[in-house]
Write a structure and sequence with these properties.
The chain is α+β, with helices and mostly antiparallel strands. It has a single domain, classed as Roll (Nuclear Transport Factor 2, Chain: A), CATH 3.10.450. Helices cover 37% and strands 31% of the residues. Strand 2 and strand 3 form a beta hairpin. The termini are far apart. The relative contact order is 0.17.
Length: 139
Amino acid sequence: MTRRLAIGFAAAALVRAGAEDEMRAAFASLAAALAERDVHGFLAAFDTGFPARGQLRANVAALVDQTELTSSIAFPEAFDESGLAARADWALTLRTRDGTQRLERRRAAVEVRFRRAGKRLRITHFEPLSLFDPPRFSD
């Protein structure tokens, strides 16, 4: 292997690691925005052309208005070759804010695609969006 080729492989690995770190940071920012009840901050991670942006805004607003949320995100085999797509296991725990302490737990294997917008990554695809549906507490 030539030195130039070895340097090229090393540089590609660094770029990929950088993209993985950025995607992990994007997930962390989503989880933090939910915990802080920050709908605007949550939506800031999504591309302005995201197809279901209006419905997502309404659902997340209802979710943070009615619940306290905690998230746990794991990344098994998380990143594809392009470096701009990720899979994660996202667990959400919702607890009512009305004093009744009702609890709902959700878990989903999420698939997310990003695009680079300047220096930031924006989410262009997120499945399943139902993870962020308003709470369905059973009485």
